[in-house]
Amino acid sequence: MNTFDLIVKNADIITASDRYHGDIGIRDGKISMIAAGLNAEDARQVIDAAGRMVTPGGVDAHCHLDQPSTDGSIGADDFISGTRSAACGGTTTVIPFAMQFKGQSLQDAVADYHQRAEGKACIDYAFHLIITDANPAVIAELPAMIEQGYTSFKIYMTYEALKLSDHHILDVLDAARQLGAISMIHAENDDCINWLTERLKKQGKTAPRYHALAHSPIGEREATHRAISLAELVDVPILLVHVSSRAAIEQIYWARGQGMHIFSETCPQYLFLTAEDLGIDDSFHGAKCICSPPPRDTDSQNAVWTALANGTFTIFSSDHCPFNNDATGKKLHGENASFDLVPNGIAGLETRMPLLMSEGVLKNRLSAQRFVDLTATAPAKLYGLYPQKGTIAPGSDADLVIWDTQTPKTISSAMLHTNADHTPYEGKEVQAWPAVTLSHGVAVWGNNQFHGAAGQGRFLACAVPFPSEG
Ligand code: DUC
Ligand code: ZN
Ligand code: ZN
Fold first, then answer.
1. Where are the domains of the chain?
2. The ligand 1 atom nearest the CA atom of 64
3. Where is 390: in which H helix or E strand?
4. Is the CB of 389 under 6 A from ligand 1?
5. Which residue's alpha carbon is nearest to atom 2 within ligand 1?
6. C-alpha pair distances (Å), 451 with each of 128, 175, 348, 415, 419
7. What is the pLDDT of residues 44-73, one digit of tens each?
8. H or E stretch including 398?
């Protein structure tokens, strides 16, 4: 009998802290041994990774799959197409959202999302809760939610159907503190957005490009500072999601300097798109890139790169939330709809890892170890999945990416595995793509083909990130 099911030989192994050469022995879906010179005859299968970086499979901790929208639009990806697309881009764990409708119990919300995921997910998944109604009965449900493995709560400061008042945010933060959970905050000032939107519309400025003006970085900065202040009041760590602007980054940097436990996330759209992608004229074309917060200017792009490299950002996620460019999605209200009626969100699960590897690591903006931390290790730690996920170590799941950095690729919608009918990165050149993605030691992507199957992914119950010491 073979000792290993698979050996990945001659790998350039990269973790968040190390880079070294070795062979990775895999058995029963787990990494069982890492050593130099494992005997190929001890394995049923061998992959020679000579000259190739091998990183942990990505953990994409921000994506929206099969999430019903409050405006009737329909997201392009369900759990099959979304997780298939993730696997083909090197992501082996996703943490989408289970969104509570106002008036719904959290228990009912998670039951609904389990039905959406079961038998469909091609890679492993956990859930964050979106809390839209923080009444006392909902707060009282949180200990049971934690017990069941939902240890992160997303809170919105904007969007009429989702937002919480500062009072209710404090209630959730207080509960998170007692339970050792992490709250994820969408920080944009709702009144600023509504006031600016009204003013722009009165001036007849309704094209997609005005979305970027309505969602001003000043509103993002104010809400970021307010979220930090609320967390300071309660004395609890928070994570600021999808941070887009230099102004917001400066608030986070300041708070860290004060010793506060502020974690933060950014996304590919804030590195590779600008407000100009929403249009430089009044055509509707730019609706494809409407997301919130919107892409900013090159100054903010530079600030995002710096904050990724210097540790201000904790994690790098996609905020994958694709809508087709038709009446189910971007054109829900027609081809000339005002920007505020266009569903927010873009596709990003499949391109997240290749874009950051290509433009970050291969262009020397980030070390390979920092890449691993941002895309896999830090999200696994923050959301209570480490060390099962997010690293290359004996005992960890054999979720790995073997990288091809020798074959240039031009990103096109046709080559991707999402159901979305477009990508914001159409025509962009990248120099890196997974040659092979392993999930539990089995190739789900290789030879430019998806080899996974619906239902292969398993639900992961998350541990609390901040357990009490006592
Ligand atoms: N903004 C969000 O907050 N969520 C989904 C997509 C988006 O653009
Ligand atoms: Zn958000
Ligand atoms: Zn989101």
1. 58-371
2. 5
3. none
4. no
5. 292
6. 27, 42, 20, 15, 17
7. 999 999 999 999 999 999 999 999 998 999
8. none
